[in-house]
Design goal:
Distance between the termini: 24 Å
Radius of gyration: 14 Å
Largest sheet: 6 strands, antiparallel
Number of strands: 11
């Protein structure tokens, strides 16, 4: 489900630095890095469901890691450095982090390395908030 709105969720200074300005939180400081509960990880800016707890794994890299995303919710673009692949929320283009292939950490051979501040966690059994879609004003 989604709702049309004039703006996305209000972000803190740190959330804006990461999601909007493509920053990175310090390794090992994110509240979701070692998080183990069952549920869904959503975009902090627009509430789009991005990842499920079933795809989360402990990579020991200092950030939450997932070996898969919810289909159609995360897009990949070449990072400004030209070497890495940046991952963005498909709905709002919020910066999530980077994806790495070929590390052999899981059978899917993929690691989405995501900033904790880019996401909120919704436990199984709780209702997911509506995804915010900005209205096109013409």
């Amino acid at each position: 489900k989604s709702v049309h709105a004039a703006q996305y969720n209000e972000l803190s200074r740190e959330e804006t630095r990461v999601l909007v300005n493509k920053g990175t939180e310090r390794a090992g400081t994110g509240e979701l890095t070692s998080h183990k509960a069952e549920g869904t990880y959503i975009c902090r800016q627009c509430n789009a469901a991005l990842y499920t707890s079933g795809d989360k794994f402990d990579s020991h890299c200092g950030w939450p890691s997932f070996d898969d995303d919810i289909e159609g919710r995360v897009k990949r673009v070449t990072d400004a450095d030209g070497r890495r692949t940046e991952i963005l929320c498909m709905n709002c283009d919020g910066h999530l982090g980077h994806v790495f292939m070929g590390e052999r950490m899981t059978t899917k051979n993929t690691r989405h390395c995501v900033n904790s501040v880019s996401m909120k966690f919704i436990a199984d059994g709780e209702e997911l908030p509506a995804m915010i879609q900005i209205e096109d004003v013409q």
